[in-house]
Amino acid sequence: MAPPRTVLLLCCCLLAFPIPGPLAFESFVGGYGINYGRIANNIPSPDKVVELLRKSKIRNVKIYDADHSVLDAFKGSGLNLVIAIPNELVKDMAANESRPMDWLNQNVKPYFPETRIVGITVGNEVLGGQDQSLYQPLVDAVKNVYNGLKKLHLERQIETFTPHSEAVFATSYPPSACVFKEELMPYMKPLLDFFATIGSPFYVNAYPFLAYISDPEHIDINYALFKPNIGIDDPNTSLHYDNMFDAQVDAAYAALHAVGHDDMEVRVAETGWASSGDQNEAGASSENARTYNFNLRKRLFLRKGTPLKPKCPVKAYIFALFNENQKWGAGSERHYGLFLPDGRISYDIGLSALLPSSASPSVFNNKVRSCFCPF
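-> structure tokens emitted (375 positions)
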């Protein structure tokens, strides 16, 4: 038996240098991720989806719920998974801290860390949305979910955030003039202050496609698709933008700057281009979708920043993995998928598929395979 003095010395050392807990997963590896939506009745089973993701070397995945069949399929896959608390549960999560604990005990604790859950989204596009009764509950729900993770000692391993649409901004052109809508500030400010305290990024859903179809007469489609164009110069910063995606990201940074959050990272929770749509949805075509997604993938692969934040590499989740045939709304909503329901590619941007594709060969094909490595 060690002498009492030795035991006392050892105890003092342990208090001074505590044994670290489990290492936190990196919440986003590289710059490229994908949204795995499942509002469809014809897409592959979750285990086939894992096979597809690994074959395509896509490591960051975001879903819109916490379906246990998906959580089971991702066990041991090594893929980073973000799960979600949908909007219809936000009020429930805000009511008290016991409900988030129940949710975490059902959907996180039994799976982590074998399933690499790296984030939880609380709601989606709540602020600026039509249901204003969710605005204040969103702030409370985010805090309650984080406190639940803290009680499980998982707050450093699992990120808490909420994605916003462009509807939270009063203006976004030029990028430096972007500010949050004044009527949203009673909710946005405490949310941002809390995220700054816990180190969460600001997530925005950035869609050049939606901006383009809203005003096709005045927006150069080449600017939206990352194709050669004259671009724009921001008169306030003299920064030049040759694509709308970077401008949208920097607009979010400008809005954060205006409310005193210069150090908060902006990440893109959704971006994509529809391969088909309704007659009034200009630019929704397979060729434009292929062009946008190829150029976006190439841009994210470079892991570079934006004109305003050149040292902060942009990270983005692409929308979406599959066409979702049961989504409601405009025709484009059902045509964002990079893959067809049987696992073949919708169009060729250099991703591998479960089955050989009948899609026409891409002019980008050889370039893609020569310049891309795993994300």
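The CA atoms of residues 167 and 181 lie 8 Å apart.
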